[in-house]
Amino acid sequence: MTDAYRTVAGRADARFEVNGSEFIGYVSPAETVEEAEAFVAEIEERHPDATHNVPAYRVPAGSASSSVPGGGSVMLREYQSDDGEPSGSSGKPALNVLVQQDVRNVAAVVTRYYGGTNLGVGGLARAYSRAVKEALDAAGVVEEIPHERFTATVEYDDSGSVRGLLESAGVEFDAAYEAEVSFEVRVPVEDGPDLRDRIRSATSGRADIE
Prior knowledge:
Structural class: alpha+beta
Number of helices: 5
Radius of gyration: 20 Å
Number of domains: 2
């Protein structure tokens, strides 16, 4: 049994003002460094005119799999940046909230619009911490078990049975119907090997699984 961990239930944000500066904290689930970076880029694109967009995330350094099951022993990539704020005043306090709350597989970005009054390093640290904390509260923290993803590509003749198998297993998946049918599957790590075997069985080994 792989270890459960704490993460956010979904995306959320929280906003407030301090001495005229507006702070908006955003959080999102992220299972990989790539997903975390994509979320950071999305918020930066949403607020290109912001004075600062300060990122922090805690995600697995590599993707979970049956050989790297995640849980308590997984290597975490912890990243933060001050994005132009005074050193140590913003990125580190934002990341510290994620560490103190013991949440992972999560990305946070705090957007700041400067309001004309300098807050000092202590004031900034309090504001950036508060933005992440309030966004986490808004999102809600849940217990999760490590998941992995794989893609099963099959001919149209096999697609109905594979789709039925995935639906009956109750796993998340997306299907793309092109020259062949590709199912992108998200499954608990401990259930992955058995599910792949069942797909191979159902297609007499014709499924291409990556």
